[in-house]
Fold:
Amino acid sequence: MTRIVPFRRPLQQQRSPIGFILIVVAVFLGAFSAVFFWDGGGRSGSAATFVEGAAPGTRITGSFARCGDGQRITCVVDGDTIWANGIKIRMADFNTPEIGNPGCEAERRLGQRATVRLTTLLNSGAVTVHKTGDRDTDVYDRALREVRVNGRRVGNTLVEEGLAHEWEGYQRNWC
Structure:
């Protein structure tokens, strides 16, 4: 007669939770570092390069749309103000009609047209940002920059199309 011996699993050694804890801590630190310290992987249009203005012709990455109520990374505020890679930029070489607090209905309508046209221009080619003049920011702490699309100043196009004036140090009356 055969004898049946019950199968018993070998006893497993108790594992120390230290290895698991170290893995969890490493993943957490890696995620934290990626969120708070990553500068965009070295792209030439990253915010760190842009803020310092170290390189002329800093390229902006991403497509432009009208800014909404949410977080502003790369979007168009109005005809002469944009957000690019998380930095608010006032284009230094021209002025467009106001849309936020216009002096009259005609100014608001022209400001809307300038905003739509600027959005179209910014999405039509390679966008670069250039430091200009001796001032880095305006009175509202926006970065003052010249913006070009495919090497051409955006302000020139808007002025030629009657949607902007060359900046002369003050705002003209659009009404």
Q: What stands out?
A: The helical segments are 18-37, 47-52, 105-122, 154-160. Strands lie at 58-59, 75-78, 81-84, 87-91, 94-95, 127-131, 143-149, 152-153, 165-166. The two ends are 111 Å apart (CA to CA). The CA atoms of residues 23 and 29 lie 10 Å apart.
